[in-house]
Specification:
heterotrimer, A mainly beta (200), B alpha/beta (265), C alpha+beta (91), B: 265 residues, alpha/beta, Rossmann fold, eight-stranded mixed sheet, 8 strands, 41% helix, 16% strand, C: 91 residues, alpha+beta, 3 helices, 2 strands
Chain lengths: 200, 265, 91
C-alpha cells in the first residue's frame, strides 16, 4: 500500500506529495498526524503541496493550508500540480534460477527474483524490487526507473553497493561479516537507504 | 604542467601488475604527487579490489568514453591519499569497448591534472594491451624469475620497442633470495643479461602482499612491516627521479646457511 | 640410510653442482626459447639451419659438431644471430 503522503526535498524547499489515488480525508489525516509527531520537522523552509494531478476544492485547499501551518516556522506554502513520473510499481516479475557471476549484468524493467547468489562484480538492475534467495554480494539497483519505494531483499545482504531509485549506498569499509544467514530488507526512508533485518 | 603517463605491463598474467600499479601509485601519492591509476583490464577489473575501493564505483572508463558521464565523475578518490585517484575498468564489457584513440585522449586529459598517470595493462598482447599502451610515455615491465614470465616479458619488450617506446624498464617481482642462493631460481643478473633492459627495481616475495590484498590496503602504507613495501617505495622514488641504489637483498648469515643445509630452516 | 644423509650433507657443503642447478637449466632453456622467439624460427627450422650451416662449413673446415652454439644477442636496437662453431683440433 502506498502512503497517503510522501516527502521530497528540493533545492527550493520541501515537496509534500499528496497521493492522488487516496481519499482527501486520508490525506488530511496523514498530514495532521505528521504535523503532530514532527511539528519541528521543517523549520524555516518553503513547503510545496503537490496535488499530483488532482483537483482540490477551495475548502480542501484551505484545510490543507491550516494543517501545514501547524509545522513550526513554515515560511511559505505553495500548491504544485506535478504529475509524478510513472512510478507505479512494476507488476511483472522475472524469475532467475542461477547464480549471477562477476562480469554478468542483468537488466529488467520488472521485479526480479533470483534463486541463487549475486557474486561480487555482478550487477542486477530492475525497474521494481529485487529479491535474492541467496547471497547478495555484487551491485544491485532496484527501482531503476526512479521508483523510490522499490526494495531489495536478500537472504544474506553483503552488497558491494546498493542503489534504489537515484540513491546509492555502499557497504561500510570496515565490515564485520555475520556468518549466519539472516534475511534483510533495504528500502528508502527520508532519502536514505535503510537496511533492516526481517523478522518472521 | 603535463604529467607523465606510465603503462605497467607484463605479457604473462599473475606476475603482479595490479599489485605493482596499486603500490607504486600509492607510494607516489605519499611523495605528494598527484596520481591517477587507470585500470585498463576491461572485463576483468581488479585494481579497485586491490585498492579497497570496489564499493565506490558508480561510473567506469567505458561510461566515460561512451559519454554517460564526465571524466571527473568516474574518478574515485582514494580513501587514504586525497591526491590519488582511480579510473576503474568496466566489469560487464570487453576490451573492444575502448579504442586506442579514446584511451590516448583520456590519458592526455588526465596528464593535464596529474603528475603521474599509471595504466594497469591486462595480460596478453591483444587489443587490451594495445589500448593500455596508447597514450603512455613510458613503460614498466613486471616479470618474475620464471622461464615463462621472462619469455613473455621479452616478447612485450620487443612489441614496445616496435611501438616506439624508447627505454622500457623492468621490475623483477617475487624473487626468493633463499632459492636464488640454492641455485634454484634465476638471479637478477641472469634475467637482466637476457632481457638487456634497465632494471628499475627488485621486489622480494612477501606473504604480506596476500594479506594486504585481502584487506584492500596497498602494502606501501605500512612499509616498516614488509620488505616488499620498502621495495615498492624505493621504486616509486626512482620513478620520481631520485637516484637510489638497489635494495640489497638479505644476505644469508653463516648460521642461517648452516641451518638450511642441515635442514633446520 | 644414515650414509645417504651424510653424503647428501657433504654434497651440499661442497657443492659443485652449479651446472645442473635448476636455475641454470632455466636460464639455458630460456635462452634457447628466446632465440626462436626473437628470430621467429621454429625448433625444426633452427635445427635445419644449424645442419645446413654445418654442411657448408664442413666443406672447408673441420668443425666440432658436438659443441655448436647458436645465440641471439641484443644490443640496443640491434639483434644478431651469433653462431659458434668450434674447430676440431688438428691431430
Amino acid at each position: 500500500m502506498r502512503n497517503a503522503i510522501s516527502f521530497r526535498v528540493s533545492s527550493k524547499g520541501v515537496i509534500i506529495n499528496l497521493n492522488s489515488e487516496m481519499k482527501f480525508s486520508d490525506i488530511a489525516d496523514a498530514l495532521m498526524k505528521h504535523t503532530e509527531e514532527a511539528s519541528s520537522f521543517f523549520t524555516g523552509v518553503d513547503i510545496f503541496l503537490n496535488c499530483s494531478g488532482r483537483v482540490f476544492s477551495l475548502k480542501e485547499m484551505q484545510e490543507l493550508i491550516d494543517i501545514v501551518s501547524r509545522y513550526e516556522k513554515v515560511d511559505n506554502i505553495y500548491f504544485l500540480n506535478e504529475q509524478e513520473r510513472v512510478r507505479s510499481r512494476a507488476t511483472d516479475t522475472v524469475l532467475i534460477n542461477r547464480t549471477i557471476r562477476s562480469g554478468q549484468k542483468l537488466k529488467y524493467p520488472t521485479n526480479v527474483v533470483i534463486i541463487g547468489d549475486i557474486n561480487p562484480g555482478a550487477e542486477v538492475v530492475a525497474g521494481g524490487d529485487i529479491i535474492v534467495l541467496g547471497k547478495l554480494r555484487g551491485v544491485v539497483h532496484a527501482g531503476a526507473t526512479g521508483s523510490t519505494d522499490a526494495q531489495i531483499i536478500a537472504l544474506k545482504l553483503q552488497p558491494t553497493q546498493l542503489r534504489i531509485g537515484n540513491i546509492i549506498s555502499r557497504s561500510p569499509d570496515e565490515t564485520k561479516i555475520p556468518e549466519s544467514i539472516r534475511p534483510e530488507r533495504a528500502y528508502i526512508k527520508d532519502g536514505v537507504i535503510f537496511v533492516e533485518e526481517m523478522k518472521f | 604542467m603535463a604529467g607523465k603517463a606510465i603503462v605497467i605491463t607484463s605479457g604473462k598474467g599473475g606476475v603482479g601488475k595490479t599489485t605493482t600499479t596499486a603500490n607504486l601509485g600509492t607510494a607516489l601519492a605519499m611523495l605528494d604527487r598527484r596520481v591517477c591509476l587507470i585500470d585498463a583490464d576491461i572485463g576483468l577489473r581488479n585494481l579497485d579490489v586491490v585498492m579497497g575501493l570496489e564499493n565506490r564505483i558508480v561510473y567506469d572508463i567505458v561510461d566515460v568514453v561512451e559519454g554517460n558521464c564526465r571524466l571527473e565523475q568516474a574518478l574515485i578518490r582514494d580513501k587514504r591519499q586525497n591526491n590519488l585517484f582511480l579510473l576503474p575498468a568496466a566489469q560487464t564489457r570487453d576490451k573492444t569497448a575502448v579504442t586506442p584513440y579514446q584511451m590516448q585522449e583520456l590519458v592526455s586529459k588526465l596528464k593535464e591534472e596529474m603528475d603521474y598517470v599509471l595504466v594497469d595493462s591486462p595480460a596478453g598482447i591483444e587489443q587490451g594491451f594495445k589500448n593500455a599502451i596508447s597514450g603512455a610515455d613510458q613503460a614498466i615491465i613486471v616479470t618474475t624469475p620464471e622461464v615463462s614470465a621472462v619469455r613473455d616479458a621479452d616478447r612485450i619488450i620487443g612489441l614496445l620497442e616496435t611501438e616506439g617506446f624508447k627505454e622500457p624498464e623492468v621490475i623483477i617481482n617475487r624473487i626468493r633470495q633463499d632459492m636464488v642462493q640454492k641455485g634454484d631460481m634465476m638471479d637478477i643478473d641472469d634475467m637482466i643479461e637476457i632481457l638487456a633492459i634497465k632494471l628499475l627495481g627488485v621486489v622480494p616475495e612477501d606473504e604480506n602482499i596476500v594479506i594486504s590484498t585481502n584487506r584492500g590496503e596497498p602494502i606501501v602504507l605500512k612499509p616498516e612491516k614488509s620488505r616488499a613495501g620498502q621495495a615498492f617505495n624505493n621504486i616509486a622514488r626512482r620513478i620520481d627521479g631520485e637516484e637510489l641504489p638497489l635494495m640489497s637483498l638479505e644476505k644469508d648469515t653463516l648460521l642461517k646457511k648452516i641451518k638450511r643445509i642441515v635442514g633446520l630452516s | 640410510m644414515k650414509e645417504g644423509v651424510i653424503i647428501d650433507l657433504l654434497k651440499k657443503l661442497f657443492k659443485n653442482d652449479k651446472d645442473v642447478s635448476s636455475k641454470n637449466i632455466a636460464k639455458e632453456r630460456l635462452q634457447f626459447i628466446l632465440i626462436q622467439d626473437r628470430i621467429k624460427l621454429s625448433p625444426g627450422e633452427m635445427e635445419s639451419l644449424k645442419e645446413e650451416l654445418l654442411a657448408v662449413l664442413s666443406k672447408y673446415i673441420d668443425v666440432d659438431s658436438s659443441n655448436i652454439k647458436m645465440e641471439v644477442d641484443r644490443h640496443d636496437d640491434m639483434m644478431a644471430l651469433v653462431a659458434n662453431f668450434p674447430l676440431k683440433r688438428s691431430v
